[in-house]
Amino acid sequence: MKFPKILLINFCIGLIFLGSSCSQNNYRKINREYKKNVKEVAKSYREIPETKKELNYDTLSITDEWIGTTNFSIRRPNFVIIHHTAQDSLGQTIKTFTKTSTQVSSHYVIGKDGTIVQMLNDYLRSWHAGRGKWGHVTDLNSVSIGIELDNNGFEPFPEEQIESLLVLCKRLKWKYGIPTSNFIGHSDIAPSRKVDPNKFFPWKKLAGEGYGFWYDEEVVYPELDGVNSIPLDNTDSLPQNSFDPIIALRVIGYDVSNPALAIQSFKLHFVQNEISSELTDFDIRILKNLYKKYL
To answer: Whole-angstrom Cα distance, residue 204 to residue 210?
Structure first.
């Protein structure tokens, strides 16, 4: 028995919509789990602490009286930390971030084609930074937004991916007032553990758009008039013999408890083509020019 042509067309359209629906519902279960966890977090915000009297003067109680103030708001992120996923695909990363056993997550993941996947509300604390330090901040997860770029760690970043990252950074900077200096990489905050995003990441391009700093190349590069080195050309330059590179790294934000690792992370971000634990004359020119931007 043959289907009339119109029925056959409707049948095919139905299959297409069914496939699309199944594709959209792949993460229905994990989204339900997300909503459940959000409710648990919200419950802790609504909790009113019990007083000593209500706790029968338990030795651990500290509140004599509870009076709620109306002057408050939720905390806002103040840093953006950029990562590469070190995995083989966007799908693999999403799977990793939706498995409870991995204990890792990020607010956003950006695919090679520029697709932006948001996995967490900006105000919630993601588990992306781990142990790290930037300046005096030792719990970066509590004050930052994590952005993961689909990249195995050894490859350049496609233009479409970086363009989407710039759009996202623009939104985050505008919405939360994140300072220019606070767009940093995972390797910046964890010199002893992390090397992401890798040496191909276009920090210069981001800085040109207002997300992070970059050095003034016309000052740093010693190619004018055959000069071998270019001193800092402003009147507040420090004398050559008083410049301390480790102090400069600390001013920028690096954890200098292990100077060699701090130097490596600095060079991964700002030098990129040569990543060792020693500062060359060229590296020092970059550092001299750069650290004043963070003062």
So the answer is: 10
Please tell me whether residue 65 adopts helix, strand or coil conformation.
coil
Give CA–CA dist 234/250, Å, rounded: 22
- In tens, the pLDDT along 207-244 reads 999 999 999 999 998 664 444 443 444 434 444 558 99
* Catalytic residue status for 148: yes
Catalytic residue among 65, 148, 209, 278: 148
Strand 108-110 to 116-118 pairing = antiparallel
User: Is the separation of the CB atoms in 118 and 174 below 8 Å?
Assistant: no
Domains of the chain: residue spans and CATH: 28-72 (no CATH), 75-209 (3.40.80.10), 217-294 (no CATH)
* Cα 54 to chain centroid, rounded: 43
Q: Output the six-digit token pair for 242.
A: 């008083």
pLDDT band at residue 190 using 50, 70 and 90 as cut-offs: very high
pTM of the model: 0.84
